[in-house]
Amino acid sequence: MSDERPGLLDGAIWPAENTKLFGHEDAAAFLAQSYHSGKSHHALLIEGPSGIGKATLAFRFANHVLSHPDPAGAPELMADPDPGSPVTRQIVAGASHNLLYLARPVDEKTGKQKSAITVDEVRRAGKFFSQTSGTGNWRIVIIDPADDMNRSAANAILKILEEPPKRALFLLISHAPGKLLPTIRSRCLPLKLSPLGDEALGAALAHLGVRVDDSDLLAAANGSVGEALKLVNYGGGEIIAAYNEVLASQGPSARKAMHRLADALSGKESDTIFEFFSSHVGDDLMGKARAAAMAGQVAAAERLSRLHSDIIERLAVSDAYNLDRKQTILSILGDIKQPGP
User: Fold this and answer.
1) Cβ 165 vs Cβ 133: under 8 Å
2) At residue 157, does pLDDT exceed 90?
3) Across the strands, what pairs with 44?
4) Which residues pair with 102 in a beta bridge?
C-alpha cells in the first residue's frame, strides 16, 4: 500500500492520475453527452464491483467538467486527461478549489484508514460549498466509496443532496449500493459499471506494467483490476490454494493447513490480503449456497447462507476492533469445515 495514498494497491495508479480508462467507454460517453446537453443529474451513483475503474471514471468526468465549465461548449466525448493542464495538475495534487475528495480518513495514531467515513468528513463538504459559493464555478464532490459512510455521515450528505447548491455535482462511488440509505439512492442517478471483459482487463493490467499469463489466475480476478493486483502482487493466488487445501484435507493435515493459512493472513502488513481472503470466503460460500438452491437442496442452501452472513460479520468485527486475527480465522475455518445437518 502506498504511504502517500492510503488504500492504493501496490502497482496501481491513483485514479486522479490515471489517464486511461478501459472497458467503460459507453458510460464515459453517456456522461459527456449528458453534460453537453445541459441536463446532467446533480448526483451520480457510480455502481459496480471494487477495482473495475469507478473512481477513475469519476475523476475523469470531474476533470472533463472543470476543463469545460460551459456545458454547451464541452465536447461530447471525454478525452484522456492532459497531465500538463492546470486543471489536471491541481486535481492530482489535491489542490483544486473546485473538487473535494472524501474517503475514509487516516487514524493519526495507527497510520491506517479508519473503518468508516465519518460525519466530520462530510462536514468538509458543507465548508467546501460555503467557501466556493460566490465563484460561479462547478463544485464537485467525490465520495469513495459512499458505502463506507456511517449513519451520521450518510444523514449529513442526504441533507445536502436534498437541497443541492447551484452548479454542484456529486459523484458517489459504490461497491454495494444496497448498503446505502434508500433516500440517498433515490436522489442519485444510478450508473452501473460491469466487470471488465478479458480484453479490457488485460489492457488495463498492461497499462500498469502487469502481465498475467495464467488464465485461471486471470479468471479469478472476476474482471477487476484490483483483484488481479491482489492475486499477483499480494499472493492472493497462494491464499486461494491454501484455502482450498484446508477444505480438501482432514484430521491433523487439516489443522496444519488451517494454521499455515491463519499465520499467512495475520502477519504484519497483512490487511490487504486479509480483505482479499474475507471477500473470497464470502464469494465461495454464496456460490455454494446458490448451487445448493439450484439443486433443490433447500436446507443446505439456508445453512450456507446463514454461515456466510455470520462469518462476514465476524470478519468485519475482527477487523474493526483489532481482535486476534489468527484466532478469528481459525474459528471461521473450523465452522466452514464443520458438516451441516
Assistant:
1) yes
2) yes
3) 171, 189
4) 143
- Name the helix (H) or strand (E) containing 335: helix 325-337
Q: What share of the chain is helix, strand, coil (3-state, %, to 5)?
A: 55, 10, 35
AA letter at 38 = G
For the domain spanning 25-194, the CATH number is: 3.40.50.300
Q: Alpha-carbon distance 23 to 148, whole Å?
A: 25
Average pLDDT of span 268-278: 88
Cell of 322: 483489532
Residue 192 burial class via C-beta count within 10 angstroms: exposed 0-12, middle 13-18, buried 19 and up: exposed
Domains of the chain, by residue range, sit at 25-194, 234-337
**What are residue 172's DSSP bridge partners?**
45, 143
Cell numbers describing residue 130: 460555503
pLDDT tens track for 224-237:
999 999 999 999 99
- Nearest one of 180, 137, 183 to 162, comparing CA atoms: 183
Burial class (CB in 10 A: 0-12, 13-18, 19+), 219: exposed
pLDDT in tens, 291-338: 999 999 999 999 999 999 999 899 888 877 888 999 999 999 999 998
Rounded mean pLDDT, 140-158: 96
Cβ neighbours of residue 216 closer than 8 Å, sequence gap 6 or more = none
